Fold:
Amino acid sequence: MKIFSISDLHLSINNSKPMNIFGPVWDNYLEIIEKDWNKKVDENDVVLIPGDISWAMKFEEALPDLQYIANLKGNKIILRGNHDYWWNSVSVLRRAMPEKMYAIQNDALRIGNCVFCGSRGWTVPENGKHKTENDEKIYKRELLRLELSLQNMQKLKQDGDIVVALMHYPPFNSKNEDSDFTNLLEKYNVNFCVFGHLHSYDKKQKLVVEKNNIKYFLTSCDLVNNKLVEII
Structure:
């Protein structure tokens, strides 16, 4: 079983929103992703999509985008991003989820010898400070959610299992400094972490960072040339 990741697809299948207004890297990007996906992924593999899945505002409007992903090969695991306004109730989402497609929210999932967990996260402080009091409030709330998911991961984990965390926001700041998020991931012995949120105007960011025995992958589609990143 192989594990891949690609994030920030920003789909709008039935209500087309041209992404190439954000630059030529978005020209025909879905065709590029599909071709690469079908070349790399087998039915038993796993593809992680850590957020910003659809531009839809309502759940019903997001269903064609979810079905588009479901039609691609492999098991798909999704996580909510900051633009996924359609994602309000995970129970409603799971009832409508197509086959071989899963959602992570405050919990964990085991497939093969891998356990998947995670949370959306939030902006990490720069120079030890949050931008606003509201940022600090959301940050602390996301820490609680991440630890809840990690605790659920521990209940599922068996000897020899690999742990992969999904986050939407980077778990560290622009200097790749330690944060409460990275401390939690280390505390629970996570092996790999995938995230997105950053885009092509953030090219100064490293796509792969290794910190304290965890390998972090930035997988926003426009930063990885619209090709899946192999994690394991």
Observations:
- The helical segments are 29-40, 59-70, 90-96, 133-156, 180-187.
- The mean pLDDT is 93.
- The first strand starts at residue 3 and ends at 5.
- The longest helix spans residues 133-156.
